[in-house]
Amino acid sequence: MATEAPPVAATPGLAARIEDGRRLYGTGDNEVRALDGVTREFPAGRFTAIMGPSGSGKSTLMQCMAGLDRLTSGQTWIGDTELTALSENAITKVRRDNVGFIFQAFNLVPTLDARENIMLPLDIAGRDVDQEWFDKVTTDLRIHDRLDHRPSQLSGGQQQRVAAARAIVARPQIIFADEPTGQLDSRSSAELLQVMRGAVDEFGQTILMVTHDPGAARHADLVIFLMDGKIVDEMERPTQDAIFDRMKAMD
Amino acid sequence: MVFKQARRNLLSNKLRLFLTSLAVVLGVGFVTGSIVLADTINKSFSNIFNVENSQSAVQVRGKAVVSESDRKPVPADVLEKVRRVPGVRAAEGTILGQAQVVDAEGKAVGGGGAPTMGFNWYDGPTNPMQMVEGNPPRENNEVVLDTETAKKAGVPVGGEVTVVTDVGPAKYRLSGTAKFGKTGQAGGATLAFFTLDTAKRVFTSSGRFATLDVAADPGVSDTKLAADVQKVLPAGFEAVTATQANEEVANQFQSFIDIFRNVLLVFAGIALFVGAFIIFNAFQITIAQRGRQIGLLRAQGASSRQIMGSVILEALMVGIVASLLGVAFGIVVAWALQQLFNAVGADLPDQSLVITTGAIISGLIVGILVTLLSAVGPAYRSSRVSPMSALHPAPVGPTSRWRIALAIAMAVAGVAMVLWGTFGDMDTAPRSTLLALGSIILFFGAAALTQYVASPLANGIGRLFGPRGGRMPLRLGRRNAMRHPHRTAQTAAALTIGVALVTAVSIFASSLHKTFVGSIEDRLHADVVAFAQGSGGFTVAADDVVLKVPQITDVLVSRTAAFRDEKGAQWVSGVVPDRVDEVYDAGVEEGSLGDLASPDTVAVSRDRADSMNLKVGSMLPMTFASTGEKPRRVVAIFKDSTFGNYFMSNEQIDANSTQLRNQGIFAKAAPGVSPDEAKEAVKKALASFPSVEVYTRQGYIDLIGNQVNQLLAMFYLLLAMAIFIAVFGIILTLALSVFERTREIGLLRAVGLSRRGTRAMIRWEAVIVALIGALVGLVVGTFLGVVAVKAFPDLTAIGIPWLSMIAFVIVAALFGVLAAILPARRAAKLNVLEAIASE
To answer: Does domain A44-62+86-250 have CATH number 3.40.50.300?
Structure first.
């Protein structure tokens, strides 16, 4: 099973961990077990995709691990920090300093230009940016000539690349990506996934991505399949067809 | 998801409904309250006049040659003639004077603005008083007081009470108490009744009567009797029906109440105007928010007329519900104002609130109309939402050039109208219309212009708080304030109106202060000043007492008298010609005040001299009620009008006035006596004249300053409503934009903005918006204030109250912080997950 899988991390150590995580919604007859006892370690420096049918709990898993939602029972860690033991304020701080986000859409603050959006987490934290690193990331993402533009002046693909830059520039311990390609055309999707792949390969970034698109999941090192709040399967470096077949089997 | 969305919409609608309604409720409440209070005061006074003279059919009096209140007294032989007219059942003459009742501790009863009146008592059908206890005054040392005054003085029937009359204080036996008409209330006035002999002796009437009251035999009509009585009257006197006389008195009160009501209504109008801005703003924002929804409806075939209709309908519903609540709130406002006025000593007659259907309907119509008018613009705009915006929210279009031109044109037109209304030559009615319209257009123009400077202003203000952008919440708040300059400007506009009016009023008050206190400081050299509050003055019997005080010298007693010249009814102040220069420097430019000692002379202020083209040596025809018209020689022209525009000698005043009353006593301390010692000596000497207040020069200056400040405080209080509503406007706009930015705030929270940071962001936005409003308000208010000061030639100095103005800016910023509390808390409490997920 999952815990027995040999780590293929570029850098050793754990980026995140969940221990017997349960998340219940509602009570009595209406009770829904979004997460039903998930235990899993996410090694640093890997690109992991979480897949599963609608209602499988994949988004809940990501949100609980990122400190956006709270487990009903169980524990989660980012690095060595146990989130489940922290106050709301402390979790906000962990999110700010150790976590990056790429959402499906509406990733950017419309009043800030691209540069300010990328700098947002660092600015909130009052940290200085490594200018060389900033230039490299924005150049790699081909947004270095769009830095003075407002989000409304950028295409959907450019917006998502700015969001990716925001996540990568801060060098968080882990980046959570929630359907990052959900609203992109296939070309922009491919570009964004390549950037994410590159961040893992070149900079040893850890990424945890939730998706329902086998085409996106195929860029991951590892695909974890979730159903009814439980991890049911996983695949190392799968092909798109293999993922597709596995998903079909789950329906 | 649909359910969640519906719930959220409802929640936002509830909040929006609440805050928009609140603006209407407060505005309508103030309007209704003003009307109800005025009706109530009206009723209580007309109650009094209806029962007064109830048995009286005809009144005989001198013709109003000077003014309604200053008439020639009726000689005693006229009374005899009137009594012999067929159809006259009874006729009695009334002697009227000032009588100050003093309580056991030596303190004045009543007064302080309300009249303190003394009469002769007579029996018969024309007497409006009814005995309550005891007997009418039969002996010359007896007095009857109205029950309220007797109670306040703490005197039982049969006890002794001191009354100060024109001959000074004396003790009388209270033979009984009486009440006025049916209600027994005389609007705070104190009434004392003496025997005819006593009244003739203690009042400076020379045995003449103020009026004669005539009762008719059965079957004789009032008008016929009036005509018959008129035939026997000498020239200069008239007989009118009692009904007409009562109506005239009631009308005088009516015009006073009308002024009072109009002042209240002006402030209610301001509150409503500010409210309209907020309603307009609220509808505009929610329509912008619903752009997609409306677009979707349009895409599915809803006509633009239907869309507009639905927005208007929404406004109508808000208007009706809020106006109903506002009317109810208005009754509370009227009650509160009634209590407030009584608390500050206005002593309004007890009268339960008079709530007429007229007041209710006015409140409803005003509220509904204002709401509808505020919604028309946004509704029209909503009907222009293209079906395409269901797919792509339309970007904000570039501002068209003609809009800027329109804004500038409005501002310029407003300024021009205010200037024309202030300095143009016209009647009161078109002048006030022009000023009101001009101010409103100016405010619209300023609000419209603000949107073009809102962004740079917000930027500048934001950077003031944080050079190089400051911390993230400040930077985000600043950006948010810059995001919709249109909305920022409109939100700020509500506060602009409040701050502008407060600024204008304080500039006016400050100039008033500077002019009067300044001229008193420069020109008044008296060390001791004594006078009575109110326009009644105090008895001339005090003169003898004061003149005997050894600690003072150069005593100047001042009397006043009413007269009429070509400009209308006027007041002339009496001086002691050879002493006036010692205690008061009038700034004589031509001639000398000493020449007032010659008979038939007058001194005129520079302002009046110029307007009537008078020089030293010119003749000024002056008409007095008791002595008629006589031209008087101008012997001096002076600059300072603090103590009036006309001076005569006291001897000439005494010879021409219907009532001898002192207005003030000015004196210097004798050599070697400190001003405080002199003041104490005068105060001690005047102890038996409790209505007279004695001040040192500095105390007098402080008093004038305090009076200006009290006036200012009252205006602030009345304007507080408008500012209160403006703060609600900021809350409303912020709350709506927090809702609009749910996802954005969720994103900020997700990437690590703390709750505290979120609150700070909203707070900064509110502070910046409030400061924009305050700054524009300061500019507009300074203009209005300076223009208002310039409109009064008597105000010779312009005072700019810098400290107050800085305080307004700080208070505005604090209001911003206050307004942000709820929206900020709402933003900070947003569930990050739901916020991100919300569509």
So the answer is: yes
